[in-house]
TrEMBL record, chain A:
The keyword rRNA-binding does not apply. Keywords: Membrane, Transmembrane, Transmembrane helix. Coiled coil: none annotated. This is Isoquinoline 1-oxidoreductase, beta subunit. Residues 211-288 form the Aldehyde oxidase/xanthine dehydrogenase a/b hammerhead domain. It comes from the Bacteria. GO terms for molecular function: oxidoreductase activity. The chain crosses the membrane at residues 12-30.
Automatic annotation (TrEMBL), chain B:
Residues 2-78 form the 2Fe-2S ferredoxin-type domain. PANTHER family: BLR6218 PROTEIN, OXIDOREDUCTASE WITH IRON-SULFUR SUBUNIT. Pfam families: Fer2, Fer2_2. One of its GO terms (molecular function) is oxidoreductase activity. InterPro entries: 2Fe-2S-bd (IPR002888), 2Fe-2S-bd_dom_sf (IPR036884), 2Fe-2S_ferredoxin-like_sf (IPR036010), 2Fe-2S_ferredoxin-type (IPR001041), 2Fe2S_fd_BS (IPR006058), Beta-grasp_dom_sf (IPR012675), Diverse_Oxidoreductases (IPR051452). This is Isoquinoline 1-oxidoreductase, alpha subunit. Keywords: 2Fe-2S, Iron, Iron-sulfur, Metal-binding, Oxidoreductase. The keyword Metal-binding applies. Gene3D superfamilies: 3.10.20.30, [2Fe-2S]-binding domain. It comes from the Bacteria.
């Protein structure tokens, strides 16, 4: 048994009776670093109290309901979080129901989906909520039976006392439990006693999804609601004149509304708007830099040479070591802008009623949606309610509130409830992209092939710091210089699944293979040697990664993939740490009749304890498919502030026939669970590029691979076992 | 605008819409059958897949005027309780992540198994290649189609 350090009663729990005689426990699901907990009255708790964003209720019939406040977009925490609560509660999973809670209007600490941060932030709180509920239920049973609580056992929602032969289900004790005070300390289970955590539990929303129930934002309809679609200006342009006569002539179009750099067509259904939008005649004029990809190429080249870098990390003296090196390796890598392309296009419902606003739709950050609305209308936050629907994917795009603001603008202008729907063309041309980035790497080796100097200079378009300066190989090299340069582009950017690392990992892991080759070392051994260096005599200050855990996944991936054992299989290795988890991957290519065939990707993940294996597998395989698809095909190029790729006919997403076998493994390192929505994606591009090099001798230094001249005569086939 | 009498999921529906209105928007905006999804609108992704006379069809590019007396089947009409063998296989394999594309995937799979009850893996891949899943659940889709073929 693990006893927690003493927690203040104010820390997070409040127990109360419910109006139907059940037990209600309010707790803060997403509190970050400083839990703000308050003791509240029963009334406050039952009226969706302010400080708590989640509730666990147990009814007199023994049904357990957990209100989940987090946006669900496929990362599956709507299933895995309740598993954690149910585990400590020793509930019968069959009697647990999960409901989506809405954003209330005050004091939410962390109600967002992003950064793979939900599970690490919530793990202990969820456990405490379950353990506390169990504690008071057991205490209530002990009182009713007049026995010692320590002699009571709980299994699958049944409370039993062996000595007296008495037993009963949770519901029989909720009334009494609701009168009790939350304990100051709760005892959590030993992980070896887990019965639900670590088992594969299927998605709680399966049936609704597979029968076509309305769940997503785009499925929301209300009587009297208007629809709107919007034409946005090219990047760097503003509206000079609008001729909407043809658009207004489409039957079903009610109005055309211009705001900012956008023109909205409004009507009673969607199809007329799709037609009318194409008939808008809008003259634009420059309002800043109107950029094309050719401009970006020039800017990148100039800044890489002449830009003023922000030095992110400096260990030793790179310049001196590089000059004195026995051998040097340099290379440049680049990646394009790409879009998020969630299958459900952006959409939101807004109803502005005077100084009050009702918002309903898919968002990763309900809080930001509310703040943006408050700012736009100049009204207090508490005048705005947000109802969260299921999200048809997010990948970071729905961290933005631009489409929420649009719905608010049109609803205000029309004085009516409005749903704004984006077309796929809107989604691909509407901005908030993964930024385009270029990297220049320089490495110096001593006469024995040891890397003694390492420099990374990154130039990004609205990418902020486009390096991860405290990541590997920092700490493993005596002389390190990490620099970042940002160009403020008119093309808007945003977090994209595994921000920065979704490309940096590929560039770095491919470059390290180039260095290993120059050093005459096996790529895996080369990395292990560096990690050994970081372990025994770490260089410089703070390191972002745990060296032992990284060594662990490197060794396990080499073993699981039979690294270097089969001369007919050409392999590529990659390892990356991001979002608190470690993932190593090996891509296998076999040459068949002169054609490289991508057969398999082996992945070893250390995300601490795996809560739900079926869900964890999903995240790792999905991350690899995503990483592979975008490395192979993803590309947005611009002409005068407008992307040339406007739909899935020219913007290619990976399909069924293009994914190889994926073999996933998880290391149980005893750590608490960390996030998994992102970490499997970054290593994939590097593993595949390195395997392609191993098989063909072609080094792919740009994404998307399929468009590179080095790839032009390679016929990569993908085949699964 | 014109009146169209459509046979959808075994029931008759009359809608008053423009001739060129795609079936997708008739289902969603006029009939409240929102299980059929909008995603690309140009017949590239398969999220809008329905059956017309048993054939998997992209409803986003199918004008209502072209349907006539044909039988339309949507995800809502596949079963009352979600117990069609393909739906059951999807639940058993736990296919979905975000789930948005899955109704279309299921409709494509049902049509495949109708025309080819025992597809091999290559045939499954070929048939399902017309549907995009942005979450990358392809391995599970494949597994679920194979399971449905075995258990139907």
């Amino acid at each position: 048994m693990t006893t927690l350090t003493k927690a203040s009663r104010r820390d997070f729990l409040k127990i109360a009776g419910s109006s139907v005689g059940g037990l209600v426990i309010g707790f803060s699901w997403f509190s970050c670093d400083s839990p703000k907990m308050e003791v509240l009255s029963t009334e406050e708790i039952l009226s969706q109290a302010k400080s708590f964003n989640s509730y666990l209720s147990i009814s007199p019939s023994g049904d357990v309901v957990i209100y989940s406040p987090n946006p669900e977009l496929g990362q599956n925490i709507k299933t895995s979080f309740p598993m954690v609560v149910a585990e400590e509660l020793d509930a019968d999973w069959e009697k647990v129901r999960v409901l989506q809670a809405n954003l209330d209007t005050e004091k939410y600490d962390r109600q967002l989906t992003g950064g793979s941060g939900a599970m690490p932030h919530s793990w202990e709180r969820l456990r405490k909520a379950g353990a506390t509920a169990k504690f008071v239920l057991v205490a209530a049973a002990a009182k009713a039976w007049n026995v010692n609580a320590s002699e009571i056992t709980v299994e699958k929602g049944i409370i039993s006392h062996k000595g007296s032969g008495k037993s009963g289900h949770f519901g029989e004790f909720v009334a009494e439990a609701a009168t009790m005070t939350a304990p100051e300390e709760v005892t959590l289970k030993d992980k070896k006693d887990f019965k639900i955590i670590g088992t594969s539990v299927k998605n709680v929303d399966s049936k609704e999804m597979y029968t076509g129930k309305p769940m997503y934002g785009l499925d929301f309809y209300r009587e009297g609601m208007l629809h709107a679609m919007i034409q946005r200006a090219p990047f760097g342009m503003k509206i000079k004149a609008v001729d909407d006569s043809a658009a207004r002539g489409v039957s079903g179009v009610k109005d055309v509304v211009t705001f900012g750099t956008s023109v909205a067509v409004v009507g009673e259904s969607t199809w007329p708007l799709l037609k009318a939008k194409k008939l808008l005649r809008i003259d634009y004029e420059p309002d800043g830099a109107v950029e094309s990809t050719a401009d970006h190429d020039r800017i990148f080249a100039d800044l890489m040479l002449n830009g003023k870098p922000d030095v992110k990390r400096k260990d030793g003296n790179f310049d001196a070591a590089f000059k004195g090196a026995a051998q040097v390796v340099t290379a440049e890598y680049q990646c394009p802008f790409i879009a998020h392309s969630p299958m459900e296009p952006e959409n939101f419902f807004a109803h502005v009623k005077g100084d009050k606003v009702e918002l309903i739709g898919p968002t990763q950050t309900p809080d930001r949606a509310r703040q943006a609305t408050a700012q736009l209308l100049g009204i207090p936050l508490e005048n705005i309610t947000v109802e969260i629907t299921r999200l048809g994917g997010g990948f970071g795009r729905r961290l933005r509130a631009d489409y929420v603001e649009e719905a608010v603008e049109v609803s205000r202008a029309m004085n009516a409830p409005v749903k704004v729907t984006w077309s796929r063309e809107d989604e691909l041309t509407g901005g908030a992209y993964r930024p385009a980035v270029r990297y220049r790497f320089e490495a110096g080796l001593d006469a024995s092939g040891n890397m003694i100097a390492y420099k990374l200079r990154g130039v990004g378009m609205n990418a902020g710091n486009c390096t991860r300066e405290n990541n590997f190989p920092s700490g493993a090299v005596a002389n390190v210089l990490i620099e970042s340069i940002e160009h403020k582009s008119s093309i808007t950017t945003n977090a994209w699944r595994a921000p920065i690392t979704n490309f940096l990992a590929y560039a770095e892991q491919s470059f390290l293979d180039e260095v290993a080759l120059a050093a005459g070392k096996d790529p895996v051994q080369f990395r292990l040697d560096l990690l050994q260096q970081a372990k025994t005599s770490p260089v410089g200050g703070e390191l972002g990664y745990d060296v032992d855990r990284m060594i662990g996944v490197v060794k396990a991936a080499a073993e699981k993939s039979n690294w270097g054992k089969d001369p007919n299989v050409k392999q590529g290795f990659s390892v990356y740490y991001s979002h608190r988890s470690y993932v190593a991957q090996v891509a296998d290519i076999a040459m068949e009749g002169g054609t490289p065939v991508l057969k398999k990707v082996t992945a070893v993940t250390d995300c601490g304890m795996v809560v739900n294996p079926i869900g964890a597998n999903h995240q790792v395989r999905g991350g690899i498919v995503d990483g592979m698809g975008h490395a192979m095909y993803g590309n947005l190029t611009f002409e005068n502030g407008v992307p040339k790729q406007k739909n899935f006919d020219s913007y290619r997403l990976i399909r069924m026939k293009e994914v190889p076998e994926i073999d996933t493994h998880f290391l149980d390192t005893g750590f608490d669970p960390t996030g998994l929505g992102e970490p499997a994606l970054p290593p994939t591009g590097g593993a595949i590029a390195n395997a392609i090099f191993s098989a063909t001798g072609r080094r792919l230094r740009s994404q998307p691979f399929i468009e590179q001249k080095e790839f032009s005569d390679i016929k990569l086939e993908i085949r699964r076992a | 605008m014109a009146n169209y009498n459509l046979k959808i999921n075994g029931k008759s529906h009359t809608v008053d819409v423009d001739d060129d209105t795609p079936l997708l928007w008739v289902l969603r905006d006029n009939l409240g059958l929102v299980g059929t999804k909008f995603s690309c609108g140009i017949a590239q992704c398969g999220a809008c897949t329905v059956h017309i006379n048993g054939n998997a069809t992209f409803s986003c590019l199918t004008p209502v005027s072209s349907i006539g007396n044909a039988e339309v089947l949507t995800i809502e009409g596949l079963s009352e309780e979600g117990d069609h063998p393909v739906q059951k296989a999807w639940a058993e394999v736990d296919v979905a992540q975000c789930g948005y594309c899955q109704a279309g995937q299921i409709m494509t799979a049902v049509a495949l198994l109708k025309s080819n009850p025992n597809p091999n893996m290559e045939e499954i891949d070929n048939a399902m290649n017309r549907n995009i899943c942005r979450c990358g659940t392809y391995h599970k889709i494949r597994e679920a189609v194979a399971l449905a073929a075995k258990t139907k």
